[in-house]
């Protein structure tokens, strides 16, 4: 069916990605946006945009009627759903077709068939695709689940039947944990996918997560475009993806690719899809699920095949046949992708919000950055925390890996915490560098969680120097012109000035004084002479005989800086001002904006440090709020269903200092 206008029913980097290809094909594009996304780049890039709500996804990007109304008002002939939101909603796909438009994706029956893990698994078993032993029955009672566990054995995975992405998923290793895991998985699955249905699967320990990109047209052609290894995960969410898989052989690729094509044919598939498998150390593989949409990690496939998968989606939706046969597909070189998130890995990967004060994506040979942010934008609590994807390609895996490390370092976003340092550390792990990563990599690398290292005194000194220089520049702007060679000059010795910096949970006592051309900063017993010189879009800092290229931004009493893979924010503590870093005690506040899902304690109850107090839903995930101290619950200030802002008081604990 021909069309000349596409409405992109999504936001962020995938909306930008789709709009760019559509416009390159000569098609008109329509963006949808909320008040929270009014300044987002996908809105500016599209030919037309339609406001669809304030911010919460249920009243905007997940509102099918609202999306359809926007498409009809702008005379869109097709809707591209991107990924997430309504992309795998069979009812929405059917409604698009009923409204006389083209859904750029598979037929509704295929989405429905593969959207339920239980039904999809039964279908795959019938099609001869290898599957993990488990339970996908219709009896969802705890009794039936417990009976099935007796046949499956431990360890096992509890999974939401209606969705993925790590939501509604729990690893269970003993009988005592089963009931709670079922309850939590049902609750999370209902909130994320609108269905409490679960399946059970035998846990395949330490596998690789390998998925195949499949494509099908309306003329009966189905092919695969090779595989992606997505083994590096945390909380069942992908962190690093690469193509091809480091341990893939031609024979195994042919076997797994044939299974992926068979899975697509079993549901009469059309368009782009991904068939996911678990691959064990012996080379056996098992069907995991099929994602009936474009994947977040599709750029690595594009970079090794030289193809534009969004263009393929659009051409297939217009009725064209696939331009290649299976024998025509060629994989060249290696590509690796990481996801830049607004989150704090050292604080349990908690999602973060805040302004985008500086954004400078990397550029260079073999580097691609797909982003959905611009400077001045506010990171909202309503949406997934992914900000951008950073991808590198090279003739070999090692070239791609080293290029990607540099690209992560060079992609600088200041204003909100990101996982940049964590990503660079992951890419540098010897096990990953050797191509030996499995799904257990991160748990082995950081068994106690990714920890924030103690602040390097020289970096604290650099932060102090940036604050001092910012103060001086502001004073000079008010005082009038002073020659550069007079800055810092005095006929008398200037006494150093004291200041305290809060960096994470650390509070550092510093001293600062000026000298011609720079600053003399003391941090504890150490002392550093620092000069700062503008260089391009950033600064070059000389610390003694060492130089650092950096990007920095000062907002009030807080300085944000990036150098190499390091991202640091330091806040100056004013005398007499309340020091939040030292206020924690037994007062529990919301670590981010979110919705209270459950309260696990009541006034008067005794709790131990680490006990779960409440469950907060934010950025599409549920987060357990733990007791910071041992003591007795003094007050509970919130209730289930209540919306909270970051810093809102939740619970007070009267600390038991004798415990």
UniProtKB/TrEMBL annotation:
Domain of life, source organism: Bacteria
Q: Which InterPro entries match?
A: ATP-grasp, BC-like_N, Biotin_BS, Biotin_carboxylase_complex, Biotin_carboxylation_dom, Biotin_COase_C, Biotin_lipoyl, CPAse_ATP-bd
Q: Name any cofactors this protein relies on.
A: biotin
- Coiled-coil spans are none
Molecular function per GO: ATP binding; ligase activity; metal ion binding
Domain Biotin carboxylation, chain residue ranges per copy: 2-447
Record bears the keyword Repressor: no
In terms of SMART domains, this protein maps to: Biotin_carb_C
Locate the Lipoyl-binding domain: which residues? 581-654
Q: Which UniProt keywords apply?
A: ATP-binding, Biotin, Ligase, Nucleotide-binding, Transit peptide
Listed Pfam families: Biotin_carb_C, Biotin_carb_N, Biotin_lipoyl, CPSase_L_D2
Q: Does the keyword Transit peptide apply?
A: yes
PROSITE patterns in the record: ATP_GRASP (PS50975), BC (PS50979), BIOTIN (PS00188), BIOTINYL_LIPOYL (PS50968), CPSASE_1 (PS00866), CPSASE_2 (PS00867)
Gene3D superfamilies listed in its UniProt record: 2.40.50.100, ATP-grasp fold, B domain
PANTHER family linked: CARBOXYLASE:PYRUVATE/ACETYL-COA/PROPIONYL-COA CARBOXYLASE, METHYLCROTONOYL-COA CARBOXYLASE SUBUNIT ALPHA, MITOCHONDRIAL-RELATED
Protein name (database record): Geranyl-CoA carboxylase alpha subunit
The species this protein belongs to is: Ruegeria marina
Organism lineage reads as: Bacteria, Pseudomonadati, Pseudomonadota, Alphaproteobacteria, Rhodobacterales
């Amino acid at each position: 069916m021909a069309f000349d206008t596409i409405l992109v029913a999504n936001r962020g980097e995938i909306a930008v990605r789709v709009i760019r290809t559509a416009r390159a094909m000569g098609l008109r594009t329509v963006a949808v946006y909320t008040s929270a996304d009014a300044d987002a780049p996908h809105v500016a890039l599209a030919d037309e945009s339609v406001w669809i709500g304030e911010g919460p996804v249920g009243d905007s990007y997940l509102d099918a009627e609202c999306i359809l109304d926007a498409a009809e008002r702008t005379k869109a002939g097709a809707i591209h759903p991107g990924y997430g939101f309504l992309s795998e909603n069979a009812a929405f796909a059917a409604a698009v077709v009923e409204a006389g438009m083209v859904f750029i994706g598979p037929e509704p029956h295929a989405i429905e068939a593969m959207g339920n893990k239980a039904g999809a698994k039964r279908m795959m078993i019938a099609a001869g695709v290898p599957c993990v032993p488990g339970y996908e029955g219709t009896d969802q009672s705890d009794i039936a689940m417990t009976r099935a566990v007796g046949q499956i054995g431990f360890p096992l995975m509890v999974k939401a039947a209606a969705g993925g992405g790590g939501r509604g998923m729990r690893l269970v290793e003993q009988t005592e944990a089963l009931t709670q895991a079922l309850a939590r998985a049902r609750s999370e699955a209902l909130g994320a996918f609108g269905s409490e249905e679960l399946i059970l699967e035998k846990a395949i320990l330490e596998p690789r997560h390998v998925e195949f990109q499949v494509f099908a047209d309306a003329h009966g052609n189905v092919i695969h475009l090779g595989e992606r290894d997505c083994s590096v995960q945390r909380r069942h969410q992908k962190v690093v993806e690469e193509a091809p898989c480091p341990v893939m052989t031609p024979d195994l690729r042919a076997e797994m690719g044939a299974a992926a094509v068979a899975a697509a044919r079993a549901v009469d598939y059309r368009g782009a899809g991904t068939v996911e498998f678990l691959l064990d150390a012996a080379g056996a593989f098992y069907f995991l699920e099929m994602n009936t949409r474009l994947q977040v990690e599709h750029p690595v496939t594009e970079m090794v095949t030289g193809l534009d998968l969004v263009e393929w989606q659009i051409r297939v939706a217009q009725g064209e046949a696939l331009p290649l046969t299976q024998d025509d597909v060629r994989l060249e070189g290696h590509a690796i992708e990481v996801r830049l998130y607004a989150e704090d890995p050292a604080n349990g990967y908690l999602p973060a919000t805040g302004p985008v004060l500086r954004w400078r994506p990397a550029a260079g040979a073999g580097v691609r950055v797909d982003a959905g942010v611009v400077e001045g934008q506010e990171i909202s609590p309503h949406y997934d925390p992914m900000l951008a994807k950073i991808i590198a390609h090279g003739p070999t895996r090692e070239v791609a890996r080293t290029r990607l490390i540099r690209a992560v370092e060079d992609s600088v976003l200041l204003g909100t915490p990101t996982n940049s340092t964590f990503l660079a550390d992951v890419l540098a792990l010897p096990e990953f560098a050797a191509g030996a990563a499995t799904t257990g990599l991160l748990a082995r690398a950081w068994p106690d969680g990714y920890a924030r290292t103690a602040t390097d005194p020289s970096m604290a000194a650099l932060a102090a120097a940036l604050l001092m220089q910012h103060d001086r520049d502001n004073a000079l702007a008010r005082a009038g012109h002073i020659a550069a060679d007079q800055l810092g000059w005095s006929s008398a010795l200037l006494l150093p000035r004291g200041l305290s910096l809060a960096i994470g949970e650390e509070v550092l006592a510093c001293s600062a004084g000026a000298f011609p051309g720079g600053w003399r900063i003391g941090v504890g017993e150490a002392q550093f002479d620092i000069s700062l010189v503008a260089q391009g879009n950033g600064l070059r800092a000389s610390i003694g005989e060492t130089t650092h290229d950096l990007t920095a931004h000062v907002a009030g009493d807080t300085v944000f800086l990036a150098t190499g893979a390091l991202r640091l924010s330091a806040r100056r503590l004013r005398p007499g001002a309340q020091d939040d870093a030292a206020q924690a005690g037994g007062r529990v506040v919301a670590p981010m904006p979110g919705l209270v899902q459950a309260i696990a304690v009541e006034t008067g109850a005794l709790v131990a440090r680490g006990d779960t107090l409440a469950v907060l839903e934010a950025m599409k995930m549920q987060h357990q709020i733990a007791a910071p101290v041992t003591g007795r619950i003094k007050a509970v200030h919130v209730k289930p269903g209540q919306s909270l802002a970051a810093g809102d008081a939740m619970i007070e604990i009267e600390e038991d200092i004798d415990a």
